[in-house]
């Protein structure tokens, strides 16, 4: 049994996708072709953001805004320890110091009440507090109302790690659209995944958008051979953009199916295990459906029983 059944999903989009790929092969524009521009415009309107900058992975989508904002040695960037390694890794890659803030036991997302204390401690260590990267774990957006209030008070800018939450929402706003910038991943097993690596950054900030576009292509300037800053090779392939365009056409339907299935799991498991808590006003993209067992032994027992059932 597969974690995500990508083969069945492929059958739904196969004909239209092959058509798109064939036209890319005929045209020969494999990098940053018109599919990439079309995708960026559709994703920006999906999240309600002014800009979408597609890129080569969720990791680069997190790294690029840090580079764009000049994050570097001596800076403290706050995030949670309960995440995929890339969230903290990019802070170190930028030369800054990751400072961990514990999660709330209800949602597993960053506990806004603990951010202030972490900032004070970072200052005592001689670091300059700059930004916070809340993670929307398992598909559930973090509490951006409380996080924004604290970030404003401490003059931190927010980079939303929406790698797992694309398609989720909080108070009617879609994941990826919170903070100064939001970063998502199109790794195949993500709620919206391509057939390789891919990612995207969302922002309403015009200046940030143009710096991100430069960083994506080696810090490119106005003409092909001028390079204004240090950047990376962070482009999205045309074929991956084509995959995402087709998957986007069935995405809302898939999110509804995930929601229906998650409810069905919760109804059946509630009496045996602690099931996910989705607070009022939130929608999860259900990147993962996770349950808590009462003890390590109980967890092991459930895992063995499930493995026995295949
Ligand atoms: C929370 C989180 N952040 C960042 C990433 C990195 O994304 P990618 O694998 O596309 O680089 C992932 C996905 O693996 C993730 O789950």
Question: Features of this protein?
Answer:
310 residues; alpha/beta; 3-stranded antiparallel β-sheet; globular; binds pyridoxal-5'-phosphate
Would you kindly provide a written description of the structure presented here, covering whatever features stand out?
The chain is of the alpha/beta class and 310 residues long. The chain contains ten helices and ten strands. The protein has a seven-stranded mixed β-sheet, sandwiched between helices. Strands 7-6-10 form a three-stranded antiparallel β-sheet, with no helix packed on it. Helix 2 (34-47) runs parallel beside helix 8, helix 3 runs parallel beside helix 4 and helix 3 crosses helix 7 (206-216). It is globular, with a radius of gyration of 20 Å. 43% of the residues are buried. The mean pLDDT is 96. Pyridoxal-5'-phosphate binds next to helix 3 and helix 4.
Annotate the secondary structure layout.
Layout: H1 6-27, H2 34-47, E1 51-55, H3 58-68, E2 75-79, H4 86-93, E3 97-100, H5 115-124, E4 128-133, H6 144-153, E5 157-161, E6 169-170, E7 173-174, E8 181-185, E9 199-203, H7 206-216, H8 238-248, H9 251-269, E10 282-283, H10 296-308
Which structural class do you get from the secondary structure elements?
Answer: alpha/beta
Note the main sheet: 7 strands, mixed
Q: What is the spatial order of strands in the main beta sheet?
A: 1-9-8-5-4-2-3
What would you report as the Rg, rounded to the nearest angstrom?
20 Å
What percentage of residues falls in helices of 4 or more residues?
A: 40-55%
Unreliable residue stretches: none
């Amino acid at each position: 049994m597969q974690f995500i059944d990508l083969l069945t999903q492929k059958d739904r989009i196969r004909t239209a996708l092959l058509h798109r790929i064939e036209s890319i092969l005929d045209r020969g524009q494999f990098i940053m072709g018109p599919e990439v521009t079309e995708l960026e415009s559709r994703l920006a309107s999906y999240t309600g953001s002014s800009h979408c900058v597609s890129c080569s992975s969720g990791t680069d989508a997190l790294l690029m805004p840090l580079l764009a904002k000049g994050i570097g040695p001596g800076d403290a960037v706050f995030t949670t320890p309960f995440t995929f390694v890339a969230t903290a890794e990019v802070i170190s890659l930028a030369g800054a110091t990751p400072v961990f803030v514990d999660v709330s036991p209800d949602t597993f997302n960053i506990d806004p009440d603990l951010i202030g204390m972490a900032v004070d401690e970072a200052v005592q260590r001689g670091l300059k507090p700059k930004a916070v990267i809340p993670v929307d774990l398992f598909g559930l957006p973090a509490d951006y109302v409380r996080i924004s209030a604290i970030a404003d008070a401490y003059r931190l800018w927010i980079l939303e790690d929406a790698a797992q939450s694309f398609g989720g929402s909080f108070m009617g706003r879609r994941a990826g659209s919170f903070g100064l910038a939001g970063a998502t991943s199109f790794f195949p097993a993500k709620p919206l995944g391509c057939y390789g690596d891919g990612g995207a950054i969302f922002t309403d900030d015009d200046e940030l958008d143009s710096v991100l576009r430069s960083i994506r292509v080696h810090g490119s300037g106005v003409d092909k051979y001028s390079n204004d800053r240090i950047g990376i090779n962070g482009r999205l392939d045309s074929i991956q953009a084509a995959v995402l365009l087709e998957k986007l056409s069935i995405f809302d339907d898939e999110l509804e199916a995930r929601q229906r299935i998650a409810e069905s799991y919760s109804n059946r498991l509630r009496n045996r295990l602690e099931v996910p808590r989705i607070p009022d006003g939130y929608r999860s993209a259900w990147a993962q459906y996770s349950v808590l067992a009462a003890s390590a032994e109980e967890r092991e027992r459930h895992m063995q029983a499930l493995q026995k059932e295949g």
